[in-house]
Every structure is written in structure tokens, then in C-alpha cells.
Specification:
By secondary structure, the chain is of the alpha+beta class. The protein contains 5 helices and 6 strands. The strands form 2 sheets. Strands 2-1-3-4 form a 4-stranded mixed beta sheet. The protein has a two-stranded antiparallel ribbon with strand order 5-6. The mean pLDDT is 96.
Length: 133
């Protein structure tokens, strides 16, 4: 069974999540979505599987969300979704897919519930120690 992580190597949470996955004995695939972009069917499927709306998955900091006017309450999910297709950075990360489900893994310890054999402990880049128990 393969784990898939939609990853941004410039994001600490994404790097921590990937490192947790690497510490398991599970196969994994890394998709750098900023390079590859999103397709409409792919993003629709991810959001449906993770039970996320585009607004819930919107990256509001360190993204062009504010400049694009996407933070206003009256902006539709369809408008946000279309902007995500055009600007992949607008999708919060990392999104992890496993046989146990699909999740936006923020904070990175959210990934523990998606893994068959998570590490008992993990030390994040910032020195914070987290536990899978």
C-alpha cells in the first residue's frame, strides 16, 4: 500500500510530515504540486476524500489569497477552487492520501492516523517532540 503526499519542500509542516512518512516501512510517492499543478478532477477528488471545502483548504498566509480577494466571506467556493487551479500555492499543505484516508496534515502529527506503523516519537525541525500515542 502506498502513501501519497502532496508536498511543498519550502514548507516546514510539509517537510516534517514527509519525514514522518519516511520513518515508516511504507512505500510513498511525493507529488510536488507547485511544479505539477492541480487538475480539476484531482483536486475535486482530494477535497471530497478529505471532506474539505475549497475555503477550508485555502492557504491564507504566505499566498496570494488576499491580493486575489479570496478572503472575503462572499467569495464562492467555485471562485476559490478556480483560483487554486490557476495558483497551486493557494492549496494548504500537505495533503496525504493513504489506505486509511485522506487528510490535510496541519499540524504534521495529523499524519500519524494515516500510517500503518507510525514512529513512536518524532522531533520536528523546530525541536518540538511529538508522539504517535
Amino acid at each position: 500500500m502506498t502513501i501519497v503526499i502532496h508536498h511543498n519542500p519550502d514548507c516546514g509542516t510539509s517537510r516534517n510530515t514527509l519525514e514522518i512518512i519516511r520513518q515508516t516501512d511504507e512505500d510513498y510517492v511525493v507529488i510536488e504540486y507547485l511544479k505539477d499543478g492541480w487538475t480539476r478532477p484531482q483536486l475535486l477528488a482530494l477535497f471530497a476524500a478529505a471532506d474539505l471545502t475549497p475555503r477550508e483548504a485555502l492557504r491564507t498566509t504566505k499566498s496570494p489569497a488576499e491580493e486575489l480577494g479570496l478572503l472575503d466571506d462572499d467569495v464562492s467556493d467555485e471562485s476559490i477552487f478556480n483560483a487554486m487551479l490557476e495558483h497551486p500555492v493557494l492549496v494548504n499543505r500537505p495533503i496525504v492520501c493513504s489506505p486509511k484516508g485522506v487528510k490535510l496534515c496541519r499540524p504534521s502529527e495529523e499524519v500519524f492516523s494515516l500510517l500503518g506503523n507510525p514512529p513512536a516519537e518524532f522531533i520536528k525541525e523546530d525541536g518540538e517532540k511529538i508522539s504517535s500515542r
